Amino acid sequence: MKFLNKCSLHYKYFISYTIILSIPLILIGGFIYQYFIETVRSEVIKNNKQVLSQVQYNLDVKMDELEKIAFQISLNNQLTPYRVTRDGYWGRQALQELNKYKTGNSFIYDLVLYYDKQPFLFSSYSTYQVEEFMDGLFGYTSWNRDQFRQDILHNSLSKVYAPQHIKPLGDNPFITYMVPIPKSATNYGVVMFFIKESSIQLLIQNILEDDGKATFILDREGKLINTTESSSVSQMAVIAPYLQSKADQGTMKLQIKDVDFLVSYTRSPRNGWTYVTLVEEDKIMTRVVYIKKIALISLAATFLLGLCLSYLFMKLNYSPIRKLRQFIESETGESLQQHVNEFEAFHRVVHQMSNKNRSMQSQIIFSRPVLRNFYLHELLRGNIEELSKLNWMVNETGIYFYYDWFRSVILQLDTSEESINEILPQIARKLEEELDQENVGYALDTWENNKIVFIIASESDSPIAFLKQMEKLQMALRIEWGVHATIGVGNAYAKTSEIGKSYIEANTALDYRLIRGKRSIIFIHEVVEGDRALQMVNEMENIRLYIHRGEIEQLSNYLSELIREIKAKNVSLFVVRNICYDLIHLIVTTLNELQQNDQYEAIGYPDVITLLDYETIDELSDMITGISILICRHIEESKNRSSVQWKNELVTYVDEQFTNPQFSLQLMAEQFSVTPPYLSRIFKEETGKTLTQYVNGLRIEKVKKMLADGEDNMQELVEKVGYTNVSSFIRKFKESEGITPGDYRKIYTK
């Protein structure tokens, strides 16, 4: 167990697959072996019973035929005791009649008719005197003259005599079957049928299969009538006493001279004969041994195939773990090789990350108000352009915008009490809760001049529905704190980047409280007729193109001309502020597209809040002119230094990271805070190659050096240079060098 705990997960997988494979194979193998033993035994027993029943049936049929012939003879007027002994003529008629019976049944070799107290016996061939028949010609060893007469007079049942050689009938052993006539207590004659032993054996063998069984037939007294195996007679002598006390049918197992035998028997209800089969148990098991051999070979082949598949699946299942290990090593900079069990190593890394995460979460919770205010200010400045990105960023701060129409709202509290500033945060949170289901809003932590600034997302841009919501807020202020407020409301915008414009509008609307009166709700569209900034669409697009193209002189001249036009049109300060906001937002957006957002931070553009500090058109014009000069200067400096600086930084990074399996254009772009297409274009301009070509070249050169140093494990070589697929790398190597890595090693060795 300690060994398994220290084993690599790679081998644990393989051992576990092997155990899982072995258990069912062992159980199935044992079950099949035991099942076949019992099945073969039961099949042999069943087969023996069927065979014995068929043998019994066939012999019973034959014996019944002999009984019927004897009965017919007793009724035949030509074969009465009087006629057959009357004179020679009737004696010859008797022979002819008997021959008819013999000829009509092929099972009978010959038959003999004898009547008590008569000097002759009649067969189908001839007549015999009793003394001549018993003592000379037929010569029964176990049947003398007196016993012959006794059987005729006192035996009312048919009787069979064991096979023996009878001289007149030939060299074959014959079975004698004696049937008294008539069958009654006062019988006065007998019909003896002579049957070849081979006829009975042939009848049995036609039924038996050649599977090593010995078959015996015993009479009702347990004496042997016939056997198919003369060598088994001694064994039958041992078995016969057991059968006398047994039922009419059954199977038993006996051991004779240290050999186990399976004995099946059945007894005929007609004549009391017992039919027995005897077979060695080892012969029965021959089939089982053969099946076991085949099963073992099949199980072994299955086991080997299972091992191969287990190894293959283990490699496939372990591959994600290996990649995860490599990824963790590349991300953490810590080698996990010292930890034998990968999961233990992962557990340590995840535990460390979890601790860091909990620490970060604690810091986030502690700094949540600060983060909340930071993201709301970023939203107000127009630095967050996508709603989904906004909700993802602010999710940890407890704020979430469900709707698509955004407004800026400013509440100016009508009070001179200085203590009101202390409860402004409490008032703001309470007003956030007063918003209905169609509006979601949050207040910025900007508590100056008794103002509360809200960013509110609404389900629709309808000013009528929003007016009711603002009235509800005014009522809550009066009821809860006894404070009156004037509310300035900017236009609703579907783009988060234009929330800053709505903030300028809300401030402008609030400035109209001197005209509209305090404690009123003022919408910007009610006090300003249209927005002339919308007429600057073409101008803004031209500025964006100048920045994209890097046309510094044209951009500077265009901005100067634009400022002169603004002054010449004599537009309001509100419109100029909107134009400046659009211009600043355009510059920020364009610089982001060019991945020059660091220049925006270096220049220090005014945001939407500080933009309101400019109170004259001249101040705004000077600010725009200053922005244009700084933009031109930074773009020119960036362009001049990009050639040398980017090449050195990009090439150095690739030279250090090309062996990392996780290396990619996306990863490199994130590292340098640029978009992948922009990085790809710059890299090719500076090096003359695509990033993929450059990386493949480095990897191939490193492999060539390792091959020259004598390393020959292709899997390890490929992994060392950042590949995971050997065949893919071999294809790239051949495309580059014209030969495979193996051929390269052979050529270099020679």
Which ranges are low-confidence, i.e. pLDDT below 50, for 5 or more consecutive residues?
Answer: 1-6, 530-534, 597-602
Specify the CATH architecture of the largest domain: 2-Layer Sandwich
Helix percent band? 55-70%
Q: Using DSSP, what is the number of strands? A: 16
Task: Give the overall average pLDDT.
Answer: 75
Largest sheet, spatial ordering of strands: 3-2-1-6-5-4
What's the shape?
Answer: elongated
Return the CATH topology of the largest domain.
Beta-Lactamase
Major pleated sheet: 6 strands, antiparallel
Q: Using only CA atoms, what is the Rg? A: 59 Å
Strand content: 5-15%
> What is the SS-derived class?
alpha+beta
The number of helical runs is 29
Tally of discrete structural domains = 4
The CATH superfamily of the largest domain turns out to be PAS domain
Span from first to last CA?
49 Å
Describe, in plain words, how this protein is organized in 3D.
The chain has 750 residues and is α+β, with helices and mostly antiparallel strands. The protein folds into four domains: 12-305, 2-Layer Sandwich (Beta-Lactamase), CATH 3.30.450; 367-529, Reverse transcriptase/Diguanylate cyclase domain (Alpha-Beta Plaits), CATH 3.30.70; 533-645, no CATH class; 658-749, Homeodomain-like (Arc Repressor Mutant, subunit A, Orthogonal Bundle), CATH 1.10.10. 61% of the residues lie in helices and 14% in strands. The chain has 29 helices and 16 strands. The strands form three sheets. It has a six-stranded antiparallel sheet with strand order 3-2-1-6-5-4, with helices on both faces. Strands 8-7-11-10-9 form a five-stranded antiparallel sheet. It has a five-stranded mixed sheet with strand order 13-14-12-15-16, with helices on both faces. Helix 15 (499-511) runs antiparallel to helix 20, helix 19 packs antiparallel against helix 23 (617-657) and helix 23 crosses helix 25. The longest helix has 67 residues, at 9-75. The two termini are 49 Å apart. Mean pLDDT is 75; it is low at 1-6, 530-534 and 597-602.
